[in-house]
Write a structure and sequence with these properties.
The protein has one domain. The chain has a 4-stranded mixed sheet, with helices on both faces. The two termini are about 35 Å apart. It is mainly alpha-helical. It has 9 helices and 4 strands; from the N terminus they run αβαβββααααααα.
Length: about 325
């Protein structure tokens, strides 16, 4: 994703934030909102990746640690080399829900984070597909866009939630009903902006990730397992910070919540269908994955390699236990 698109999104969200400030407090409110938004943008550019990792309790993986740490670090290193990217930092989140995200302001300052639930749920090939998807986000500079979007969207929701406290401002001519409407419509507008860009970036990261690892079906199988796990297992941190939900490869918010009405992720079924079509196109000699791919794709599907051994199972409901629990 180009820097131009990042700038356009930042301008749109900043304008939305300023608009809410104007409606709540007139010209004074708009100026205050502009100052706050400018400071938030600057903070988000330099620090939001660290804030998100800290929010989810992510722990840095030691490449010289135990076997599990070495396996994970080595897989990321190999895929990053295949994607022609600098080696990102690797983190693990102690979270039972299978999921993953990438963050960082550019490829030189990027990080990939996976949950312990993901490590327990997928096999080695599926994990490679997930990591390749996240590396595609890094290569497209989506990570900068995602972290800044999450920061500003969260601020819009916070400002709207406190709108009633500004209802008595003499510059506010909306009245109680208008203020109440703003409390509802403000977060909805921010969510629509997120949804508009998130669907596009997820589809593109699926395609590019499949090219990086060399096997679209690895990612397709992983997406089905992760989606099933996200439906059953809540992610408490994401529930408390829903503005960060679009960072993940699959929406981490629980299926019973109304957040799904404004989901920032495309339907998993559509993503899987596109990946299967891509695999079919590759098998019939069409344009497919890069020649390098993931080295694991050149091994026999019966070969055992590390703790995530075995090929992608025929049934996505089969569970291969990983090393983190």
């Amino acid at each position: 994703m180009s820097y131009l698109r990042t700038a356009i999104l930042l301008a749109a969200l900043t304008a939305l934030f300023m608009g809410i400030g104007f409606l709540l407090g007139g010209q004074t409110g708009m100026i205050i909102a502009l100052v706050i938004a400018g400071g938030m943008n600057l903070f988000a550019y330099w620090n939001s990746d660290k804030a998100v990792l800290r929010m989810y309790g992510a722990h840095l993986v030691d490449p010289n640690g135990g076997r599990d740490a070495r396996e994970l670090y080595g897989m990321v290193e190999e895929l990053a080399r295949s994607a022609d990217l600098p080696m990102p930092k690797v983190y693990v989140m102690d979270n039972p829900q299978p999921n993953a995200f990438a963050t960082g302001r550019n490829p030189e300052n990027a990080a990939v984070a996976v949950t312990t639930g993901l490590m327990r749920t997928v096999n080695r090939e599926e994990l490679a597909g997930v990591i390749a998807h996240e590396l595609a986000h890094i290569r497209h500079h989506d990570t900068l866009l995602m972290t800044i979007t999450a920061t500003i969207a969260g601020a819009i929701s916070m400002l709207a939630n406190f709108a009633l406290f500004f209802g008595g401002n003499r510059d506010n001519h909306m009245g109680f009903i208008g203020t109440l409407a703003l409390m509802i419509l403000g977060p909805m507008a921010a969510g629509l902006v997120q949804m508009a860009i998130s669907r596009t970036r997820e589809y593109e990261a699926d395609r590019a990730g499949a090219e990086i690892c060399g096997h679209p079906l690895w990612l397709a199988s992983a997406l089905q397992k992760i989606a099933g796990g996200a439906e059953r297992i809540p992610n408490d941190e994401a529930e408390r910070n829903p503005a960060s939900a679009h960072l993940f490869i699959i929406n981490p918010l629980h299926g019973l919540r109304l957040d799904r009405m404004f989901a920032t992720h495309p339907p998993t079924e559509e993503r899987v269908a596109l990946l299967r079509a891509m695999s079919q196109n590759m098998s019939t000699g069409g344009h497919g994955a890069s020649a390098a791919g993931f080295r694991g794709s050149n091994r026999s599907t019966s070969a055992q390699s590390g703790p995530w051994s075995g090929s992608v199972p025929e049934s996505p409901r089969r569970r291969t236990r990983g090393p983190w629990g």
